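INFO batch 0412 | record 1 of 1 | parsing
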Amino acid sequence: MTAFGPFSGTETIDFERLGHNPLFLINGPTGSGKTTILDAICFALYAKSTGDEREATQMRCDFSEPGILTEVTFIFKLAEKTYRIRRLPEQQRPQIGREGFTNQKPHAELVEIREGGEERLIVAEKVMEATREIEEMTGLNADQFRQVMVLPQGKFRQLLMAESKDREKIFSKLFQTQIYQKLEESLKSQAGEIRRERDEQTHKNKGILEAVELETAEELSEELEALSPKCEEARLKKQAGDKTFLAAVNQLQAARNLSSQFLELEKTRQQHNELLARLPEINQKRHEMSRVELALTLLPLQREVNRCRSELTAATEKLDQTEKDKRLTRENLSVAEEKLKSVDSLTVKLDQEKQTLAKLDGYLQRSADFLKVTQELAAAEKDEKEAGSLLSKADENQNQLAKALEQSEKELTDLQQAQTVFADKKLELKELSDHLPAREELVNRQQKLVLEQEQLTQTEQTGKRLANAHDESEKLVIALEMSWHLGQASLLAKDLKTGTPCPVCGSLDHPVLAQTGDIVPSEQELEQARKDRNQLGTQLAKAREDYAEVRSRTASLQKEINQATEKMGPLFGTSTDVLKDRIKMVEADVHRLQKEQGKINGITGIIVNQKIELTSVREAFGEVQRQANVKKSVLAGVRAKLESARQELPEVYRQAGALEQKQKETQQGIEEQEQKIKAIRHTHQELAGQWKAAEASSLAAAESRKTAVKALQNTTARWESALKESVFETEITFQVSLQQAEQLENSQKELDEYDSQVSSVKGALEQQALVLKDQKKPDLASLEAFLQQVETEKAATDKIWQVMDNRLNLLLDTRKKLKKAAAESEKLDQRYALVGTLSDVANGLTGNKVSLQRFVLSVLLDDVLVEASHRLKSMSKGRYQLLRKEDRSKGNKASGLDLEVEDAYTGKVRSVATLSGGESFMAALAMALGLSDVVQAYAGGIKLDTLFVDEGFGSLDPESLELAIRTLIDLQSSGRMIGIISHVSELKEQLSTRLDIVADHKGSSIRLVTPEG
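INFO prediction complete | emitting tokens
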């Protein structure tokens, strides 16, 4: 452990020195750091302390130097394998090379140590990854590890004496059974949600009926029964009208088709006459096409003549170019032959340069020796000068350090007198800081209550406004419906005549016809009024739900404010600003005192460092004097070596780099001569080859020109003979016909298209004349007038049927929705029958009033008590064993987890509260050990061979203490290492193997004590 907890430096604990499976004591005064050893082990493994009272960032020791990082390294064996884990918490560290601090991120390194010291890196630096690896290796998370390996202070005595309700909280935390409580809350929430959905479904059913202006399902059935036959009668009338209208449409369409056929016949006759008028033009084009086709047969022979002429021109041009290249190559070759004669003189000069280079190579080693000795002389002279300067400074440093040490000791004495009120200020700051969040939360809730009350008022006003608007809308719908029905009656009355049956009642007499003086509303206006009324009804229901919800939240907030006010007590009257001001004042005092404390630690470290530095400087002074004498003798020897080197090397090459520069220049001259000779020879050889190639090209070009002349003569004779035998008088008439060849394809296409049109139009004309041979043109005007009359009658019957059919479909859809809603309501009832029952059972609302979590905890507690009673009997000489009280408590008091103790001396069962202090400690220790065994069993059979007991043994009498230790010895003999944390002096006398924690004003340290010393 380094800078960890109260340990300011580095503390190392070698548990192997305690022996094989030891029983040892961790001893020391209160606050010295006994529990910190367990915190360090738990932090190294899981980055948490044993009790979760401190975070990892709070582990740093206040006495440590700023440059020392807080860290823990833990080496442990698990399943015959050895591991090392090293962790650093998040902390502030000095910046390198600059003033101030920077944030050191948390770090973790996990390594497996194999035989022979070989190491395998498992995790390099990631904190969460290291924790996951540890959990996989041990099979325990941090909470389970603390339950199995560490028995913390006070928790088990508290668990032993607590009531059933309080024991449930403690036990659920130790066994991590919150999942059962979450299950209880989840079932309760689900049951409430089903009840809310059922209420919404009831409201939805009412809205479905209101949408069709009905109140009950019976009214819906009655209207459906009355409307169905009327709608069927209207549908039959509509179908008859549709048939009549369709027949009229078909008749008119047939007449229009016949009229179109007469028009098409006239158009076809006109098109046929136009084609016959173009016949002379078409015949002329056929004659011209025959001459073009003949010209195309002679075209390849003419192209052959043109090709031979082009080849002759190209051969002539190539012959001229090869003669020119031949003359130029001869001139270049003559120049190269002259340069080749100078190669001999260049070779002589090259040999001279190589001899010079060999001579310079001989001076190279002597030049290196001379420069080396020169450098040694400069270094020796510098060392001699620096030695004298250091000797002077060392003497001056001795005097300055002595004065600084005296000043620091005086300053330390002054600062130590200002620390008497530091603890009181920290206590006051903690009390004020604890109350500030509660006060701020109370203010937030009061502000939220004001907002909720304002929203409640607004919601109430909105509900009243919507209720008035809904009533007015309802009245408007009733008035519009009455006016619409009267209007429909008056429309029917207009067409009634004496002797004609009434379509409503069937009477032949109509003594009083229905009339209306008002404007009759349309169906759209009536439907819109109904929609407005239904929408207002929905908004009104929503506003009432919002009002109930806001009123519930307001009451809940008021209750929370009353509870918080009662909890704050006398500080309730203190405002947040006043609390903050007091906290700032106390924080300023604490901050100032912390700075003074930091100064004390800093000055203390400075004094120690100054003393060490002064001693070091005095020792260094003698060493500097000795080194100065040695460097003087070295300087004399180097000067003698320099004089010897001067005799062997010419003066011109004694300067650094002079010889190398001369070698470089000579080598460069050699390379230039060699390149020049090589270039001359290469150029001559290349030009000689070009001369031979030029001669061969000239001969080949002359031969090609002869061949081209002969080919042109033969081709021209054949072309002139073919032209004479053709229909073309001259080559000019041939070219004229040839120029028309580009139009050949378009002309042929035009002729084919003309022939096709003539054939098509002639056939169409004959067919149309045959079809209309005995037909007459129809009277379209009379047929269109008849269709308009039928269409008007059809629209009237369609409108009557549409009104009835829309209402019928709306009622049928409403009945379908009601059936679906009834099915959903039945499903909700079935779900609530299951979930509601489970919720009541899980939350302890039935039977013995035992919740699910308490039932699980009672089973676990029974297992713990079996193991605990086994050890308690041993420690109490067979007198006591622990039992769980199974009788239900009176009233609403929680039950199921109460403890009792059976006294074998009296044969009675009594409350654990009747045990004495020593007896209750033995019971608590037995219960803690039993819990450790049970947790290991529930963790999959995982076994840890180490156990730390952090409990107070001071309440035991000597005999009980002896029995408790004997119980722990029994555990030790089963293969466990047992560590007891206590400051009881009797334990110190009985346990010769100890870790003693020694505390002073600079922090704590650890001393290992064994029987062997």
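INFO post-check: Residues 422-577 form one domain.
INFO record closed
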